[in-house]
Amino acid sequence: MPSSRTSGLSAKGSSSGRRKKGFPFPVLGFQRGTGNPKRETRNGRRIIIVAKPTVITGTVGKDAHVIGTKILSRSLRDAGFNVIELGILTPQEEFVKAALENKADAILMSSLYGMGENDVQGFKDKCVAAGLSDVLLYIGGNLGVGKHDFKDDEVKFKKLGFDRVYPPASDVKAAIVDLWADLKARGKV
Amino acid sequence: METKLKNKRLDENEFLKMREPFLAQWRTGREVDLDEAVEYQKKLPDSKNWHKVALKLHEEGRTAIFPRAGTGLLEDQISLSKKLVESGVPFIPVTTDSYTRQLDFEKVESILAEMRKTGRNLLNGYPIINYGVKQTRKIIESVDRGAFNPRLSLKSYPLATEISFAAGMTGIAASSFISWAAYEKDASLEQSMRTNQYVHRLIGYYADRGVIISTDNHGWILTGMQPMTVNLATTIVDALMVAEQGGKSITSVVHLMGNMAQDLAWIRVTPKLMREYLDKFGYKDVSIAGVFAQHTPLFPMPQGMGGAFAFPNYTAVVAALGNVEAVSVRTIDEALGIPTEESHALSYESTNWLLNVIRGQKIDFKMKEIDEEEAIAEIEIRALMDKILEIGDGDVIQGCLKGVEAGILDSSFSPNKQVRDLVMGIKDSRGAIRWKEFGNLPFPEEVKKFHRKKIAEREKAENRKMDYDALIQDFWAFSKGQLVGKA
Q1: Is residue A171 annotated as part of the catalytic site, yes or no?
Q2: ipTM of the complex
Q3: pLDDT attached to residue A31
Q4: Is A63 known to be catalytic?
Q5: Do the Cβ atoms of B413 and A67 come within 8 Å?
Q6: In angstroms, what separates the C-alpha of A57 from chain B's closest C-alpha?
Q7: What is the pLDDT of residue A171?
Q8: Do residues B102 and B128 lie in contact, with contact meaning Cβ atoms separated by under 8 Å?
Q9: Separation CA B224–CA B411 (nearest Å)
C-alpha cells in the first residue's frame, strides 16, 4: 500500500500585496541568468527582469514517497523557478548529474521513510568533487526513524553538508522565501 | 520479438513453457508440481478457500477484517496466523519482505541464518520464496481455518504465486496497475500487464481443474486525492483480464476516500458495473465473490491515540453500512511503523465490535446523496470503459495502453513517468472529492458541470479559491480531525 504521508514541505499561507500570486518576489518578466534584477523598458512598458534560478528536486535513496517532492516542485515552478524534477527513488549520482547538466543553483531533496541519513552519506563530497560546491543543498521530511527531536536532525544533516533542513509539515512558501534569500546572498539572483 | 499484447487467453502449452525460467529463479521453484498442487488444494476445507469464505460471509450478512501482516521466521508467521485466526479473522495475509520483493534470495539466506543465530528480527515480512512450498504449507496446516493471501511485488509475482498456490493459498491481489502507478518511476504498464497475464493464466490452470483461487482487484492505486472512478474502472479492467485467462472468482476492492455518501456510492456501483462488463464479454460464469473496502491512506501526520482509534473505526462504520464482505483496516500503530501483535489485536477488537453491532441491525442505509454520487460515478466509469474499448478496438489491454498515453486514464501525484498527471482533485464543502482539473478524462459536460458546481459552493462558503494551496490543506484534513482543509 502506498503511503501518501507528505514528506518535506507543504504549502500554506498566501502571497501578499501586489506581488504576482505565489511569487516570493516582484516579477514582470524572466531572464535566465544570475546577478541582480535589471530594469528595462520594452514596448514602452517598464519591466523588471529577474534571474530564473534552476533547482533540482527529488526523493533520495530507496524511498518511494512522492507527495512532498511533487508539492515542492509545483510550488517552485509556480514561484518562477526552473525546476528539474527527478521524482522518487533517486540515487545521489542522479542529483549530481542533473545539477551539472542543468547548471543548477540548488538541490532540494525529500526523504520520508526515516533512512535518509544513510542515503545522503558523502553527498556533499560528491558535489564538491563534481565542482558543485556552490550549489545550495536543502533537505526536508521525516529524517529519522521513530520518535525523535527535529533539532537533532538539523544538526546531523547540517554536518552532512546541507544548508537548510526542514521537518515534516513545513511551510513550502517560507522555504521558497529562504531559498530566494540564500540565492540572493550568494549573488545568484 | 514480443507480439502486441492483447487480452487473449494464453495457450496452455505456451504457458507451461513460460513457467520454466520463473521456476528456475530459485531452487524452491523445483518444489512446485502443478498436478500434486491441484490435489493438495482440493483437499483443503471450505474455510481455507477465499472464494467460499467470501460467499459464506455474504450469505450470513457479516463483514470480516482482512489485515496486513507478515514476519520473517516461519515459526513467527505460524504464531501470527494462529493469533489472527483465534481473533476471528478469516482472511490471513502473508506480507513478504523487501528482499524477496527484489528477488535477492542470497541476501535472505544470510539474514535468516543471522536471525536464527541472534534471535533478532531483521526481516520486514515472510520470505516465501526462500521457504518454498513444503515449509509454507506448515503455515496453512497450523490452523484449522483461514484463507491465505500473499502480498507480493511485481518482480516476485510469478515465482511467488507458483509457490503460494502450491502451498495452499487461495487468494491473490491481481492488478496490472498497483506497482506501476503507485510505487515505480520507470516501470511500463505493458510489462506489468504481461506479468499479470501470466499469473492470471496460472489461476486459470487451477480453475480448469476445479480449484478456485480468487483475485482481489485493486486497480490503479491513487497516491493523491481525486474521485475514485479511474481506479474503479481499472478494477473492471483487472477483472476482464483475469476472466479471459480463466479465473473464476473476483473479489472487488473499493478504496474509500472519506466522504460517506461518495464511499458508499462507489461500494454499490462497482460490483454492479463489473458484473455488467464481465457479462458483456461473455464471462458469465465468473463470480464476484465479495466486495472488500479499504481506506486510501490520506493521513499524513502521526496521530494521537484518539485519532488512531477513530480512523480505523470510521472505516469500519462505512464498511458495515456498505454491507461489504470484508474491510482492511489499519492498526492504531500505523503512524509509528510495523505494528506489534498487541496493536493488531486491540485494533481489530475495536473495529470488530462496530462491524458486529452494525451489521447485526441489517440496516438498509438510504441517503439521497448516495444516489446522486452513484449516478455521477456510473457515468464516469462507463465513459472511461467505453473510451478504453473504443481506442483499443474492443481490446481492453490495448485500450489501457493507449489511454494512459493520451491521459484518458490519469491520476495526480503518481510517481510513474508514464502517467500524464494532468488531473487534480479537491474536496467540496461536505468532504466529497471533486475533479478540479479534468485533464483529458473523457467525461461528458454534465459531469464536469456537477463537479464545478460543488467546488463553486465551497469557494463561496469559504470566500476563497480552491487552488493548489487548498488541495494541500485538504491532504492534512483527516490527520487534524477535520473533514476539509482549513486556510
Answers
A1: no
A2: 0.76
A3: 47
A4: yes
A5: yes
A6: 13
A7: 86
A8: no
A9: 8
